[in-house]
Fold each of these.
Amino acid sequence: MSIPHSLRTSITPTELELVASQQLVEIVPLISMERTAFISGAYGPLRPPNKAKVPLWMAFNLKLKKKCHIVAPDWLNVEYLQGKLSLETTKPEFSSLPFRFAEISKVLLDVASDDLENPDRLRSLLKDLREARQAKSRDGLKTLDHSELSLPNLCSMEINEIRPFFVQSMSLMSQLMPIATVGSLGDS
Amino acid sequence: MDWDDEYDLQTVGGGTAGPSFMDRVRNAAPDEDEDEDIIPGVLPVINETPLEQLIRHWTNERHAPDLLAAQEDLLANLLDHLRRQSETVQLLRGDASTSEEEHIRIMLAQVEIERVKFIVRSYVRTRLFKIEKYARYITTNAEIQTRMTAAERAHASRQANMIDRHLYSSVLQSLPPTQGHLDDVDPLSTSEEPKNIMITEPDRTRPVFAHALQNCPPVHLPDGESLKMAKGHISLVPFYVVEHLVARGEAELV
């Protein structure tokens, strides 16, 4: 009954999505509901057409039943992402994005693309962002040593992506370390 | 008990420690936090709901090479809450007079119950995996046992016993007596008490991604430098470097 093999070394993208779904988003409900106590907290009341803040999983379920519109978070629009993308391609460091932006934008684009402005453009911007950042994190491998690697502004999905390779490389380097002269390898 | 009782219960006694549950909901940081900062998901630890705590412990446990401290009380509280919530849902489902609007509420509550159950299950199974893997280590190490519940300790010793018996009956008994034990030591070791290399130990040097939840005191890195992680900082470091920060809830593994 212990956890299956495939899940032992790392968390999966689906599980990251589950974690991210706990974050609050704004919705415009199409049904009314009293304030209700859930395990993660009390949400509501829903009073159309007033906006309400609910966790993403709840918005997701209501949306599937066509009982609400989801209000896009303020970072999920063409203008904002365009700005981030130009930062990303001109500056060497990672630009700051919400920690779980990849998961949240995926869920929203999957179920609520009709609530977003220009979803196709958003998709391609997110993809460009991802690629620009991926190139940087691969580049970051150069600075990896046996002791520490700082990864400011890296997001949860990106960490998960580089995890297997980076963790193994670093383990290997610390195994080799006692042989090399301590301290002669890079600084961080 | 019906829905509103559950609601009242949360209002009155839900928060076993500190401010009542409703106070925490009202003063909840997420709303303000999101506006002030671009890094959501980083809340001061004090404002965490029990579920958020469990999610943090679950991801920590998933990424840590060693077994972390058991969260018996937190788990018991959540399981209790799960049971109460399931009972409420069952009760309302059985009631034919429930309205359409009520059905949505019931559906949402059920969805949440399944979500929480998944996390609880995955958390427990992750610990189980480590306990079974390190069973023989656990039985010889008193320190790691302090991080386990009584049931987990019992499971570990049963498991270790079974492995020993199995290895003995399948292989060891037919080997020459000098090789017939599980006590080989590291032949290259020069220390007085060489380590038994036939016991699988957690690899505490395995690198992990640590995410500082608050400004952390400096930690010592293997290359002799010290690192001061400010709130929000993410670092790939060997597990033993940040172990104490994770245990104190000052950093989480991501």
Amino acid sequence: MTATLHTTAALALGDDALVLSHRLGEWAGHAPVLEEEVALANIALDLLGQARVLLSMVGDEDELAYLREERAFRNLQLVEQPNGDFAHTIARQLYFSTYQRLLYTHLAAADGEFAGLAAKAVKEVAYHQDHAEQWTLRLGDGTDVSHERMQRACRTLWRFTGEMFQPVEGLDIDWTGIKTAWLESVGDILRRATLDIPEGPQAGAWTAGAGRQGLHTESFGRMLAEMQHLHRSHPGASW
Amino acid sequence: MTTQEWPLWEVFVRSRRGLSHTHAGSLHAPDAELALRNARDLYTRRGEGVSIWVVPSAAITASSPDEKDPFFEPAADKPYRHPTFYDIPEGVKHL
Amino acid sequence: MATAAAHRPAHADGTAHMDAAAYEAVFDAAVAADERIEPRDWMPDAYRATLVRQIAQHAHSEIIGMQPEANWITRAPSLRRKAILMAKVQDEAGHGLYLYSAAETLGTSRDELLDKLHTGRQKYSSIFNYPTLTWADVGAIGWLVDGAAITNQVPLCRCSYGPYARAMVRICKEESFHQRQGYELLMTLSHGTPEQHAMAQDAVDRWWWPSLMMFGPPDDESAHSAQSMAWKIKRHSNDELRQRFVDICVPQAESLGLTLPDPDLTWNEERGHYDFGPIDWTEFRDVLKGNGPCNEQRLTQRRRAHDDGAWVRDAAAAYAAKHNATGTADASARTAGGPSADQTDENGKA
């Protein structure tokens, strides 16, 4: 495995964790119930920890997080999607944590350079997936209002899910196998939550590519502007 | 539907193997599954536990402080239940 | 909602067989002997009301206090600082929860307390009505605001009411990192670039006086102090604690290389304490009345989070009702299978 491949994969995994952690951090002070403030922050902290390990494999974590331009970020478009309501956040969590758990389970079992990180992270991610599933069940099979909101969220985010199964350079993974397992796992939870499995394509019609190629959605630039502003305003300063 | 407050749960945490569960505090949750998860996030986020029990607060029956005397005082005058009650000659070992 | 049997006051059980005076004597003796009062013990109504008011205000302060710091989570200038700040704001939510639990042992409910917060019938610490304008404010809050809070809170670990004292033990243990991270943050800024140093000084200039106000009005004007001291809810007077805080901060500011914005701050050999200038109590009362820079903003955000979350709380309650999961053996059995639970011996015992 060459150094270039290693970098691409570490950035893809690291940016996923960094960006989703940032989005979850935006919930602080806004969660629907105090117990969820604590739960969402726990998940955000796990992800930030993963991001720091992965980015540090490539270089200086802060330079990578704060000084890269938008096009250099390799995260999935799914994780950069704005929080929306709690249903959107839960749908995003369900889709991503199911994927991340499958991916990290494979990486932990192999003996590549990500095995150590993956072995630790897979325990964290199992909890994230459980959290997302518990809430998917309650929102889907709760009230009419929550069912409607959760159904809409699952549908809206569906088109960002195909990107997850695009092969990432440097990761020796059975991507088709992961996709099948993901569809089965998410499909099962949605059914139990009395939700319809969204129809329609799992990717947008634009052929220019997506997050893994450095192409992002409109809200991502604004997210980065906020995240990077202070760091960039004081070049070379330590914090 | 008008929002009704989630019920209250008491949380017991075993801090490490070999110790019994100790009351840690309480929290609100709609059901047992979320109560357990909320307890994990709230009471063990610094690695304080290896096992958690959650019990609906309403399920606890407690002794009344008014009955403190009849409940607990009779036990106070039975010193023969304690090993220190007995005189053993000096030098006798393993007793 | 039914209050837990473990929490329900004993005299509500209809088992009372002492008269009020006898109860009061037992209560007074317990307080005098430095014993803890526990939830089901008889207590004077005014003691109960004082505790509910104080614990609720304390809980509300933790929850509202998340906002000024959360304001900087998305802009934290390094990933290390971001993790620290997220963990700290999360702790504040946790501390709010411990305190609401403690208040609930007195026969109130969290919903009732939140409603009083949202409608302005209960207060939170006025300090959180000040804005966090720069990153250095995160440091100043940790050092000064958390420092003042700790000075106030450490004696509360010996408060006469058991559940409150126990919550405070847990909170104080967790809070020691809050103050240290703030101090470290300011230290880094103070010894950083000239712009960073100026940012740190500006933050200390703005937070110093409001922090001194956190100890409450001077002793001769404090409405609740004397009775609270007699009940051992409070252990030291406002002025005593304020003086202790000033004495601690002066040398800490010197180590930081920052100045405290008070020209009257001088060591008084005779008293063995630092003298400090007069506090602007007009500002204190104005902010308390609602005229601070952020009163409206803080309450609006809190209310919005609560209102926007209603459908989520409803959904979970509806799901629980549908699946009859509340406390059923079925639900426990399903949750018991988690990877980390040592369930085999658990089940035998439970």
